[in-house]
Task: inverse folding
């Protein structure tokens, strides 16, 4: 059974690098001055950056794994400089539950299921 947990603090450089690689350079992710005037007040992680971090953790655990489907929700933002708890737990033989939670307040930033 898979049960992987890690604490990670994303930084603005992570957001900027992911924006360059993905092409998603929306100001909400990469422009702190713009974000200062939004409801968030600061830059917000790309949701798929969170998923990519989880997938990387899983591939370190077992490089042979491949995904057949995924279902992801991003109910709350993750911010640069704020620690996150990332977890992957096996639910059934082929299904994994993935979760990213802000350490500061327990808000879920990613909730998902992945079929392998």
Result:
């Amino acid at each position: 059974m898979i049960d992987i947990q890690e604490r990670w603090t994303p930084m603005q450089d992570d957001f900027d690098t992911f924006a360059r690689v993905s092409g998603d350079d929306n100001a909400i992710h990469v422009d702190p001055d713009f974000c200062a005037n939004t409801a968030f007040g600061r830059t917000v992680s790309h949701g798929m950056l969170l998923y990519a971090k989880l997938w990387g953790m899983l591939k370190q655990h077992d490089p042979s794994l491949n995904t057949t489907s995924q279902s992801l929700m991003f109910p709350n933002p993750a911010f640069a400089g704020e620690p996150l708890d990332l977890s992957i737990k096996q639910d059934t033989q082929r299904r994994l539950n993935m979760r990213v939670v802000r350490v500061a307040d327990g808000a879920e930033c990613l909730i998902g299921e992945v079929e392998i």
Residues 47-61 form the longest helix (15 residues). The beta strands are 3-8, 69-73, 84-90, 95-102, 108-115.
